[in-house]
Write a structure and sequence with these properties.
heterodimer; A: alpha/beta; about 25% strand; B: alpha+beta; two-stranded antiparallel sheet
Chain lengths: ~240, ~375
């Protein structure tokens, strides 16, 4: 493992106002390092998605510091945060969030388009990303023509095409059957083998524990336990 | 094709029913504006058609004349004073006025007499399709427009009628000289015009003035104004503007046309704004995803503006096609809708501005997007 890609220090997040105010994250410190796949586990409402949003620069913390590749995000406005996301972070969502009117290649290319990369090379990069997730034969397929597993692969291709150093995934296997879920985790684990990249996965699916280098348990807005993972080589071989 | 444009077009065409509603709204709005503005242009041209066809550099007229059809009179002595002014080459009388045309089958109908010298400087009929200006020198000769044959109970050249108990014969026929008041014009010589309108021989409605080629029109105008009393001296452009201003704004006709056009713009803006807003709302998840994957606010606004521009262009094309049909259908009517290239360009610009302005509500909605919502949907 190498440098911290994302570093959250004493992060607090309060949501809502007045009587409805809730402290979703209560002084959490967590790092995502290059070359590791970290699982963020906990029951529903424990604050893990809020923590993921803060580490992904989708939300700003009420208190505490978030550093992205050593640079603090404090004081960054919405446009600054958007730039940090497009430069450093790739997202994978439980419900994929693909654009139904665009084919797989264009869905992936969109991540480059928002970065201002619109040349022929962007198209080639999108195809290469799709090839990396095993979908080189489905570049022209629209989301509706793809299975759930294939859609999630397209989403992963979109997350990695811009060479994002941190891939943040929210329940990436939540809508998939076991076989597809394992395949998706294998892909994410492969990405995390690259020492310049890290993968942070929010889940409460215990079946993906074997893929983790580190497992962080969150309850009631706090980290209650952190343990090293035990990536199961045998299982990866069996699945692939 | 740019991905931003592709996303915009797919968003737009995705819900076909809504897209059709948007386009119908734009077409309706722009056709309404086209008709109103085309009427405005047509009306503006029609009210000055006589001024436009008189080959005068300056017009001498009774003080406070509002428009060409204002039948005030001046003494003929003013004409001689005008001729004495340095730089004036010619000053010719023009007599206008309403008269009653007795129909062959009984009854009368009003006509607007335009009488001038048949040689030299004068306002004579143009676009003749039968007869000639020389034919107006026959006693009792008049020229009328073929579109008024039925109204005047005539069948063309050689037809007889009466004005003020005096015999009238149609000796020339024009095409397309129509009056916005719907009262037919009857061109004749200056003496007959005086007789038909009851104007004494020493009076005239206007004096048309021609300025020497080496003289400055404005200088001559000032000299005339200084030397003549109780009259106004206007250049052709000034008189044209005064006439147009009176009919378009003095009567409220122009305001009514503008109000109609404004209504069209408001209706169009509301329809496009509503559909763009609901389209944006339907694609909120996608815009949030765009934001989450790092798109700038500008990128998202451009997607929405592309949608608006696409709607504008498609809507304008539909409106232009319908507008062309309407223009053709009204070409021979009493008040034709006139669409000039400048008006077409203006309507295109208006459509674009209207659609882009309509995008503001949708953009305001997108500006409030919380990208973190992608985790809760």
């Amino acid at each position: 493992m190498t440098e911290a890609l994302i570093d959250a220090v004493d992060v607090v997040k309060r949501l809502g106002r007045g009587a409805g105010e809730v402290q979703a994250v209560k002084g959490v410190s967590l790092s995502l390092n290059g070359g590791e796949l970290v699982l963020l586990m906990g029951p529903s409402g424990s604050g893990k998605t809020t923590l993921l949003s803060i580490m992904g620069c989708l939300m700003t913390p009420t208190d505490g510091i978030v550093r992205l590749r050593g640079r603090s995000t404090a004081g960054a406005g919405p446009e600054d945060l958007a730039k940090l996301r497009r430069d450093h972070i790739g997202f994978v969502f439980q419900s994929y969030h693909l654009f139904p009117t665009l084919n797989a290649e264009d869905n992936v290319r969109l991540a480059l388009d928002v970065r201002g990369q619109r040349s022929r090379r962007a198209r080639t990069a999108a195809r290469e990303s799709l090839a990396m997730v095993g979908l080189s034969h489905k570049t022209k397929a629209f989301p509706i023509e793809l299975s759930g597993g294939e859609q999630q692969r397209v989403a992963i291709a979109r997350a990695i095409v811009g060479n994002a150093s941190a891939i943040l995934a929210d329940e990436p296997t939540g809508a998939l059957d076991t076989e597809n879920g394992q395949a998706i985790m294998t892909l994410l684990a492969e990405i995390a083998k690259d020492r310049s990249r890290g993968v942070l996965v929010v889940t409460h699916d215990p079946r993906i524990l074997p893929f983790a280098n580190r497992v962080v348990h969150v309850e009631d807005g706090r980290i209650v336990r952190e343990e090293p993972g035990e990536p199961s080589k045998e299982q990866r071989v069996r699945i692939s | 094709m740019s991905l931003m444009f592709r996303l915009a077009s797919r968003n737009l065409f995705h819900d076909r029913l809504r897209f059709v509603a948007t386009i119908v709204g734009i077409v309706f709005s722009i056709v309404l504006v086209t008709v109103q503005m085309g009427l405005y242009v047509g009306f503006g041209r029609m009210v000055t058609t006589m001024i436009d066809h008189a080959p005068a550099d300056l017009w001498v007229m009774p003080h406070s004349t509002k428009c060409f059809e204002d039948p005030s009179l001046m003494d003929d002595r003013q004409r001689f004073r005008a001729l004495a002014v340095d730089g004036v080459v010619e000053a010719a009388p023009l007599v206008i006025g309403f008269a009653q045309w007795r129909l062959p089958g009984g009854g009368t109908t009003p006509v607007f007499i335009v009488g001038s010298e048949l040689r030299g400087l004068g306002l004579r009929p143009w676009d003749l399709v039968a007869g000639s200006v020389d034919d107006l020198s026959i006693p009792g000769a008049v020229a009328i427009d073929q579109s008024y044959f039925e109204r005047l109970g005539t069948s063309g050249i050689g037809a007889n009628a009466e004005i003020r108990d005096q015999k009238v014969q149609v000796t020339a026929v024009t095409k397309g000289i129509r009056s916005f008041t719907t009262t037919p014009f009857a061109f004749t010589g200056i003496d007959r015009a005086r007789a038909y309108t009851g104007v004494s021989p020493d009076k005239a409605s206007y004096f048309l003035v021609r300025v020497a080629p080496d003289s400055n029109v404005e200088s001559v105008r000032r000299r005339l104004q200084a030397n003549l009393s109780d009259v106004e001296v206007l250049t052709t452009t000034e008189f044209r503007n005064r006439s147009r201003s009176f009919w378009l704004f003095g009567t409220g006709a122009g305001a009514a046309l503008f109000a109609g056009a404004l209504l069209g713009v408001i209706v169009g803006t509301v329809i496009v704004a509503q559909t763009l807003y609901s389209s944006t709302k339907d694609h909120l998840d996608e815009f949030a995803t765009l934001r989450a994957i790092g798109s700038s606010g500008r990128y998202i606004y451009m997607v929405i503006i592309w949608q608006a521009l696409l709607s504008a262009i498609i809507g304008f094309c539909g409106a232009a096609a319908i507008g062309a049909i309407v223009v053709r259908m009204t070409a021979e009517s009493a008040l034709p809708i006139v669409v000039t290239p400048a008006l077409t360009a203006g309507l295109l610009a208006l459509t674009v501005v209207m659609c882009v302005a309509s995008a503001i509500a949708a953009i305001a909605k997108v500006m409030r997007i919380d990208p973190a919502m992608v985790f809760t949907r």
